[in-house]
Design goal:
This protein is α/β, with parallel strands linked by helices. The protein is built from 10 helices and 8 strands. Helix content is 40%, strand content 19%. Helix 1 crosses helix 10.
Length: 258
């Protein structure tokens, strides 16, 4: 049985795609078969973290939603993109990572915005991907905010991971999403605080956020010059395995796996 994890944030810019990709890498390093699907169709970008050239893609999620191909035809094996600082693939035997990217073509994005698509097709695609690729985990990188696709992703999730920055607007938006998730009875809700200044008291910040939401804080992830330097050029989890960000990723996975 595939475990479905949705990563979501009320606003953009929280680092949601970056965390999703690093979680996928961490799961593959633990020997799991993991799929990542980029449903942030209006502003896709997770492919860059796995060093996928979007101009060389045969099919994307958009093609599946318009009926041009099956969903597994859009899935790329990105295991070879999970490398260490020396460019060596570090995933053990049995571990695999697959990515379903969205199109960055302006015409495709404009069509989504104008015509929409049948959300049930997306749900069917999730299910077929899990079965046909024999996934242990499916990670859904959602579109920020609340819309029909987001509600679908939340509703089918075993775990919903909500990212927020230490910012009042993020705090208020997260409360709205948490209320929706509780109404949809998501089995596991986790908060992740991202882009916290290294000068902050992480333990105090975690405790204050838990007290506000009564929801487990899986990790407080730092904003540092090292992370800014890496940016979207690769996966912190494998490029800097001893970094505090990588330790946070592993702490999150311990909760998800448990």
């Amino acid at each position: 049985m595939t475990k479905i994890i949705s990563t979501h944030s009320y606003r953009g810019g929280t680092g949601k795609s970056n965390l999703t990709a690093n979680l996928a890498a961490g799961l593959a390093l633990r020997g799991y078969r993991v799929g990542v699907i980029d449903t942030d169709i209006q502003s896709p970008g997770i492919h860059t973290l796995f060093k996928v050239d979007p101009h060389n893609l045969r099919f994307t999620l958009n093609d599946y939603l318009w009926g041009r191909c099956g969903v597994t035809e859009t899935a790329l094996d990105v295991t070879s993109g999970i490398v260490d600082e020396n460019g060596m693939v570090v995933v053990p035997d049995g571990g695999r990572a697959f990515l379903v990217p969205s199109s960055i073509k302006t015409g495709e994005i404009a069509r989504i915005l104008k015509e929409k698509y049948d959300v049930e097709d997306l749900n069917t695609g999730f299910q077929n991907l899990c079965v046909e690729l024999k996934l242990d985990y499916l990670l859904i990188d959602t579109h920020p905010g609340v819309n029909e696709e987001t509600l679908l992703s939340i509703a089918i999730s075993d775990t919903l991971m909500l990212l927020l920055r230490p910012d009042i607007q993020d705090y208020q938006g997260t409360a709205v999403t948490l209320e929706l998730a509780r109404k949809l009875e998501v089995p596991q809700l986790l908060l992740v605080v991202n882009k916290a200044l290294e000068s902050f008291d992480f333990q105090d910040l975690s405790q204050r956020i838990f007290s506000s939401y009564r929801t487990p804080v899986a990790a407080v992830l730092p904003l540092s010059t090292d992370l800014v330097r890496i940016g979207s050029t690769g996966l912190v989890r494998t490029l800097s395995p001893d970094h505090a960000f990588s330790a946070g990723v592993e702490a999150i996975l311990d909760l998800v796996e448990g």
